Amino acid sequence: MADKLHFELVSPERLLFSADVETVTVPGAEGDLGILVDHAPLVALLRPGVVEVQAGGKVTARLFVRGGFAQVTPEGLTVLAEEAVDLATVSKADLQDKLKGAEADLAASADDNQRIRAEAQVAAIRQVLEAA
User: Which intervals hold domain ATP synthase F1 complex delta/epsilon subunit N-terminal (predicted)?
Assistant: First the structure.
């Protein structure tokens, strides 16, 4: 019996994380889920939030996901994220600059479609900024 959980986080762009870990906490739609080795099979809808990876008794990675699915199988945990960001790779200053630009785009929106896209972008950047 393995003492580690194999965890992979996949976004549409790429495989963002793959490692054998002790535990992973994912933001389930109905509450946070703690996944350890030998967890029962599961498929869960994810809400926007932070996935925390633990190995060696400490948090080793924090990854923001904007929805998706988590699947637990005998082989491990796979998170299929709609969008994902490794929080160790983002700077709050860069996010704040992006937020200002997105807010300016929102203010300059000429039609409903532009406004809807700009509002979604502003909300997405704010979620990552709050998690960082």
Answer: 5-84
Does residue 64 sit in the same domain as residue 79?
A: yes
Q: Name the 3-class secondary structure at 114.
A: helix
Are residues 77 and 101 located together in one domain of the fold? no
Q: What is the CA radius of gyration of the chain?
A: 17
pLDDT of 58 strictly over 80: yes
Residues 66 and 103 in one domain: no
Residue type at 70 in one-letter notation: A
pLDDT at residue 1 tops 80: no
CA 39 → CA 4, 24, 25, 73, 83, distances in Å? 11, 11, 12, 8, 25
Range of the domain at 124: 91-131
pLDDT, mean over the chain: 91
DSSP E strands, 1-132: 5-10, 15-21, 23-28, 31-36, 42-46, 49-55, 58-65, 68-73, 76-81, 84-86
